[in-house]
Write a structure and sequence with these properties.
Layout: E1 5-6, E2 9-18, E3 21-28, E4 33-39, H1 48-62, E5 72-78, E6 81-87, E7 91-93, H2 105-124, E8 127-128, E9 137-140, E10 145-147, E11 154-158, E12 164-166, H3 185-188, H4 195-211, H5 221-230, H6 242-251, H7 263-273, H8 291-303, E13 321-324, E14 328-329, H9 337-351, E15 358-359, H10 362-365, H11 376-383, E16 387-396, E17 399-408, E18 413-423, H12 427-441, H13 448-455, H14 462-477, H15 480-496, H16 501-517, H17 521-538, H18 543-546, H19 550-553, H20 560-563
Parallel strand pairs: 13-15, 13-16, 14-16
Antiparallel strand pairs: 1-2, 2-3, 3-4, 4-6, 5-6, 7-9, 8-11, 9-10, 11-12, 16-17, 17-18
Helix pairs in contact: 2-4, 2-7, 4-6, 6-7, 7-8, 9-12, 9-14, 14-15, 14-16, 15-16, 16-17
Length: 569
């Protein structure tokens, strides 16, 4: 086909092929633009069923108008060849964009929210995708998601009890369609698909983006089918945030009734944990039934300074972005792992107070924990930063030794290194000292206000500090039991020091995590609000507390930009 002309479309190269058609890049000689041209495989030209399905895809796509769905221009037929003319998307498939260790968490969540938004639009038009997989998702050069290939899309109308029924059945009743590794259990059982079946497919993609591998495996089709129907999903990386873990688990519930019931609901959950807005805001009517989602959307818009994909700094030698890798636990005591994680989080928090410095969030760097991480220049390239901070923690009784070093990504050049020996009660002050030293070494501009924030802080009871770190450690694990353990640690900390703001903030975060997956939001979100308000009354610079209920806790007459401190990217 390459070199041929169909009507006024000159075929330039083949882009891909599948059972539902072959896709070419072609030149529209009339409008002088490149397009994607999808034609039926030569072996199916005489198959009327295939031709009907092909036309149905064109009809399905023609009803959709969304920035995250590939646009259809026209359907045509010439010389007995039926073709669909679509938007040509420059980029690469999501399946080819996921490294072996998975994507950075904020990128995975951003992609997931865009896919969910595209699905919500399709479902509102009465269309199911039925073949959602990472190879049918394109990532443009600008980082925008484009959903492709509605070749197995099915037109449905709502039925009783949120069921669906087919308006125009073009496949044999009960036939299984789609790609096996992404099929929902009910689809494999031959039951009718509905919107929740597409959400299962998105759950598989989310798992794939976070872990770098799909959740179910089998050497044969039978083994893979059995795994999807009966076995739990493979574990996500230990560093996966609790809320993200809960969202993926809910998407992959075997019982469709236990999943998110609509794509709007799933998108709302993803945007609640997202570090920033990834797509244009949805119409207000989509959020009317979730009053607390509005608050989360506002804080995301207020805090995030714009979505940024990984990139190198334009000026050689200049450091404008940094990633703090998980500190190594040299205590030879696994029970002290919480302490090393706490050190990493606090240093990220302190550096994030400098607005001129872009700091990668803890959710993205935690995947580099352990001895087998890639070389530092590779990590810096994957995260798009100019410099890396790494270090270690060794604790013995009430003494702690912290070693930290700053490495410039290009050339793997060591800029600074230092070791500190302190009493446990001085550890928070030490963390701020390390942050100030790093800011000085990279010669980043620090305002007097930021300097004051990095120097502020009161002496903390070491036991209270440890209780809070243990609480954060269990909260990150994400199961309902771990969340309850975390809550117990935070409450113990509050009992010892009622005025320690991070303990109240921890309580708020646990309740929000429980509301995301395990408990009714109306039951626990008021508790999250109360705890967040308490934390901010004690320390209004505590960034994480602002993310719980921003609309409810802003004092009258104060705007979000006036109140919210700088934060990690």
């Amino acid at each position: 086909m390459v070199g041929r002309t169909l009507d006024h479309y000159r075929i330039l190269e083949q882009l891909g092929a599948g059972g539902m058609g072959i896709v070419y890049r072609a030149r529209d000689e009339k409008l002088k633009r490149d397009v994607a041209l999808k034609v039926l495989p030569s072996g199916t030209l005489a198959d009327e069923g295939a031709r009907k399905r092909f036309r149905r895809e064109a009809l399905a796509l023609s009803q959709l108008n969304h920035p995250n769905i590939c646009t259809i221009y026209e359907i045509g037929e010439t010389d007995g060849q039926t073709y669909i003319v679509m938007e040509y998307v420059e980029g690469k498939p999501l399946s080819a964009s996921i490294p072996s260790g998975g994507l950075a968490i904020e990128i995975a969540i951003r992609h997931g929210a865009q896919i969910a938004d595209a699905l919500s639009h399709a479902h509102e038009q009465g269309l199911l995708h039925r073949d959602l997989k990472s190879s049918n998702v394109m990532v443009t050069r600008q980082g925008r998601i484009k959903l492709l290939d509605f070749g197995l899309a099915k037109q449905v109308v709502p039925g009783p009890m949120e069921e669906t029924r087919t308006e125009d059945e073009l496949t044999e009743k009960g036939a299984v369609v789609g790609t096996l590794a992404y099929m929902a259990p009910e689809t494999l059982r031959g039951e009718p698909a509905d919107a929740r079946s597409d959400l299962w497919g998105l759950g598989v993609i989310l798992h794939e983006m976070v872990a770098g591998a799909r959740p179910f495996h089998g050497k044969t089709s039978y083994a893979l089918t059995s795994a999807i129907l009966r076995e739990p999903a493979a574990a996500l990386p230990e560093a996966t945030p609790a809320w993200v873990r809960g969202i993926v688990q809910k998407c992959l519930a075997k019982d469709a009734g236990q999943r998110y019931q609509t794509a709007v609901e799933l998108r709302a959950a993803l945007e609640t944990v997202s570090p920033g807005p990834s797509v244009a805001p949805a119409p207000a009517k989509r959020f009317a039934y979730r009053w607390w989602i509005v608050a989360a959307a506002v804080i995301a818009l207020a805090v995030w300074q714009g979505s940024r994909l990984p990139r190198w700094s334009a000026a050689p030698g200049r450091i404008e972005s940094v990633a703090v890798l998980p500190f190594d636990n040299l205590s030879k005591d696994p029970d002290q792992e919480f302490f090393a994680k706490g050190m990493t989080e606090q240093l990220i928090t302190d550096l994030s107070k400098i607005r001129a410095l872009r700091v990668i969030s803890r959710t993205s760097v935690m995947r580099y924990q352990g001895a087998h991480k890639p070389p530092l220049p590779q990590i810096a390239s994957e995260l798009g930063v100019d410099a890396i901070v790494e270090g270690s923690v060794m604790r013995s009784g009430d003494k702690v030794r912290i070693t930290a070093q700053l490495i410039q990504a290009r050339g793997d050049q060591h800029l600074w290194a230092e070791s500190y020996d302190r009493d446990l009660s001085e550890v928070l002050g030490l963390q701020r000292e390390v942050a100030r030293t790093i800011a000085s070494e990279i010669r980043i501009s620090v305002t007097p206000q930021e300097q004051a924030l990095m120097s502020a802080g009161r002496r903390v009871d070491p036991e209270v500090h440890q209780l809070v770190l243990r609480g954060r450690y269990y909260a990150d694990k994400g199961t309902e039991d771990d969340c309850k353990k975390a809550l117990d640690y935070f409450e113990q900390a509050i009992a010892r020091d009622p005025n320690y703001a991070p303990a109240h903030s921890g309580v708020a975060l646990v309740y929000r995590s429980l509301a995301t997956v395990y408990l009714p939001p109306r039951e626990v979100m008021p508790k999250a609000k109360a705890a967040a308000e308490k934390a901010l009354r004690l320390d209004e610079t505590l960034a994480e507390a602002w993310t719980i209920f921003p609309l409810a806790i802003f004092p009258a007459g104060r705007t979000t930009t006036q109140r919210i401190p700088a934060r990690a990217a």
